[in-house]
């Protein structure tokens, strides 16, 4: 019965309204991710092996601003192209309709990678070395974003009867996996701990970035089995969701990158 399961608390997505300005939980989660990345990145700048590569707080702050812009722009473009392409074809202006929501991690990743590549060209530093520096800064922001999804009562999981199943009123009366919390725990907390531990010492250039790709890709791929597929897309070839199809290349690419890094041997 419905009373046997947890019920989503139906939290107001708006924390406070001041005139025309709404402070939303989801936006606050982005701020949390940005502030954590700023703090942890400055901490990394003081680590001997990063300082030896020329990382300073000033240099990092310049990169962080543009990386954050890459997340926002890439996330929106990726969502529209990966998940709402037909809607975009019907109305190209939908790309700029940010009030309707919609962000994609994989699009945000491509946006950040573009920024890192431009930064590497201008600074004449290895693209892979910059990626290694940035990788540990990302997971906490991902976890915070998933908590924002949970607070909003969106991107819920598939129907289930596990003891911790939750009823999301917007999804109907069936109990579902709170898959947003699974993602927050795996893509956020667990991945950060792994990367923070691994990056304490110099590693072959590209290895930290490769580990991030593997870790996120695996976490997302597994949790997608508990997450409700996008209604307009459903399950695709092999019964995989769009999230799984976008994550599989990350896993393969991460493995290849780590193999390349350890064969090459130079460390950062």
TrEMBL record:
GO terms for biological process: lipoprotein biosynthetic process. InterPro entries: Lgt. Its main location: membrane. Pathway: Protein modification; lipoprotein biosynthesis (diacylglyceryl transfer). A 1,2-diacyl-sn-glycero-3-phospho-(1'-sn-glycerol) binds at residue 146. One of its GO terms (molecular function) is phosphatidylglycerol-prolipoprotein diacylglyceryl transferase activity. It is a multi-pass membrane protein. It comes from the Bacteria. Its EC number is 2.5.1.145. Keywords: Cell membrane, Lipoprotein, Membrane, Transferase, Transmembrane, Transmembrane helix. It is found in: Cell membrane. The keyword Magnesium does not apply. The chain crosses the membrane at residues 23-42, 63-83, 103-120, 127-147, 181-198, 205-223, 243-262. The keyword Transferase applies. One of its GO terms (cellular component) is plasma membrane. NCBIfam families: lgt (TIGR00544). Catalyzes the transfer of the diacylglyceryl group from phosphatidylglycerol to the sulfhydryl group of the N-terminal cysteine of a prolipoprotein, the first step in the formation of mature lipoproteins. Belongs to the Lgt family. This is Phosphatidylglycerol--prolipoprotein diacylglyceryl transferase.
């Amino acid at each position: 019965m419905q009373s046997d399961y947890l019920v989503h608390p139906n939290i107001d997505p708006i924390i406070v309204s001041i005139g025309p300005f709404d402070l939303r939980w989801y936006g606050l989660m982005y701020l949390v991710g940005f502030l954590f990345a700023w703090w942890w990145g400055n901490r990394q700048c003081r680590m001997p092996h990063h300082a030896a590569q020329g990382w300073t707080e000033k240099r990092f702050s310049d990169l962080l601003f543009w990386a954050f812009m890459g997340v926002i722009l890439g996330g929106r473009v990726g969502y529209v192209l990966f998940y709402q392409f037909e809607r975009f074809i019907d109305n190209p202006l939908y790309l700029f309709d940010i009030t309707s929501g919609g962000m994609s991690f994989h699009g945000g990743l491509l946006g950040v990678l573009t920024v890192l590549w431009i930064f590497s060209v201008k600074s004449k530093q290895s693209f892979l070395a910059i990626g290694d520096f940035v990788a540990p800064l990302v997971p906490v922001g991902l976890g915070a974003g998933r908590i924002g999804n949970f607070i909003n009562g969106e991107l819920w999981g598939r129907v289930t009867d596990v003891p911790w199943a939750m009823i999301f009123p917007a999804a109907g009366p069936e109990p579902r996996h709170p898959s947003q919390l699974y993602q927050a725990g795996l893509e956020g907390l667990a991945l950060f701990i792994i990367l923070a531990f691994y990056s304490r010492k110099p590693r072959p250039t590209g290895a930290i970035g490769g580990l991030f790709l593997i870790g996120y890709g695996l976490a997302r791929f597994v949790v997608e089995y508990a997450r409700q597929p996008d209604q307009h897309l459903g399950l695709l070839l092999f019964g995989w969701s769009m999230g799984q199809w976008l994550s599989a290349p990350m896993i393969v690419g991460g493995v290849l990158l780590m193999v390349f890094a350890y064969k090459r041997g130079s460390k950062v």
